[in-house]
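Collaboration report, partner site 2.

Our partner group contributed sequences for two proteins of shared interest, and the home lab folded both. The records are reproduced in the order in which they were received, starting with the first partner submission.
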Amino acid sequence: MKRNNLFLLLLLFLTFFQMSSATQTPSEDILEMKVKGVAMDPYGNTPVVILEDLAGQQAFPIWIGLPEAQAIARALEDTSTPRPMTHTLFQNILNNLEVKVTRILINDLQSNTFYASIILRQGAKTFTIDARPSDALALALGAKAPIYVAKKVLGSVRTVNPSVSALPQHSSKQLGMHLQSLNPELARFFHLANPEGVLISYVEGGSQAEQRGIRRGDIITDVDGQPIKNLQDLLEIFQRKKPGHEFILLVTRDQHPLRIHLPSAATE
């Protein structure tokens, strides 16, 4: 019965959501990305999927549900289950109907919620289906379809992984921090008086940042005595720092100031 309902639901999508005008060749307004991995946020005990651009210069996390995280992890590892799970079932239905997932697009960010679209093709017809990013990513990985993110979303999030891109080549490759410029909405969420500073949106397990006590949700407001208003301020300091020296970070955690010493280069 459940499979029949899913089948009918998919047919309704294909019938009523045809939008050929929205499925042209990817433009300069979007950036192709890949799923770097899935991890468990140790502080919220919530799964996180990390997206990264193909050049490894930009990355940001999206918090997702456990079933979607499991589906994404299975797709990344190319493993199967004895019986098809929900995302595999949808992929099988699409295959049987000769419908191809051509790409997915994470196209908007509103109130800290990401929005996505799945682009389908059946013969000469194309369709755009609204979806949660987690479901769209699971289907894209299963179909080996490209993943795109609107640059306006990246511009809003402005999250990078300095261990990959923002720091010089000699700097630590294990800092493991994902950073995001604050905005008024995030400042209100963290009960801050103003939107100046940089939010640590994710800390990778086993990284230098985790070992030094940095946590997701920390707000960097000062580095080495220099005020940090936005992400660009922080990256400029990172880039000027010589290897072998420490950063002294002033962070706000739960509305209380805290000093953290962070190495500027990896140690063997």
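Second partner submission, folded after the first:
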Amino acid sequence: MRILAGATTVLRRIVDIGLLALILVVLFGVLLGKGAPLVGRQSIVIGGSSMEPAIHLGAAIVVQPVDPATLAVGDVVSMQIGPERTTYTHRIVAVVDRADGRWIRTKGDSNPVPDPTLVPVSAIIGRVELNVPFAGYLLALLSIPVGVIFVVGLAATLLAIAWLLESLEPDTRSVRRRDGSLPDAPAGVDPSRRRALDLEITRGEPIPARPTRMTLANGLGPAWPAGAAMGSAAGTGDATRPTVRQQIDRSHAVRRRRARWLSGRGHGRPVSD
């Protein structure tokens, strides 16, 4: 039973960690995709392998607008070329100043030769500022309705599993000490019942309240609630139990009070110690 309970607890914690990781990943994707434009940047998903090993397929990059005069050989830039405005990300291998402006020649790190044509600096979107491997898959997933539905469904499934596992765990956390051990049985409980109390604690059942000592209204002596044990075994471990001498003194005091009460009513006779 304890092994099953421990396995359930471990599995629930794993599911909790998975749910937390999913939330953090989704928040990071939203921040990367929607937060970059708020600070004047642009996020782009790499759909090719021409820049490997510097930038891998499926990576997400953040580009910053750049002054054409500051472009230099070795910069990695993103640009839109052709009538369809196709986006490429390559490295600058040459900067050419002509009468009609500045042009650049680019090359993919994994390509054997440079790109065949020069590119005007007006086609440059910006210089690559940040490269996050595999984050492009996340941005692509969150950019389509099917992907959003998948993420929401996965989160709901993990949450349901966590709730189910938590309901299967034994409810003993409220009666355990900080070190995880079970508390001792109450001091006023007969030793023969300690085993039964241990079972009640394991099942999460409440511990019966310890009987409290009271004094009768007429002051005749001590009394205990109904059903409470008054034997010597019930007092084992009780640091407040009176000594034999104190019990004798209390008995004498009770006899004296009883004698005075009876004398006041005209019944009986004085009782000496």
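Feedback sent to the partner group on the second submission included the following. Residues 42-132 form a domain with the Umud Fragment, subunit A fold (CATH 2.10.109.10). Residues 2-35 form the longest helix (34 residues).
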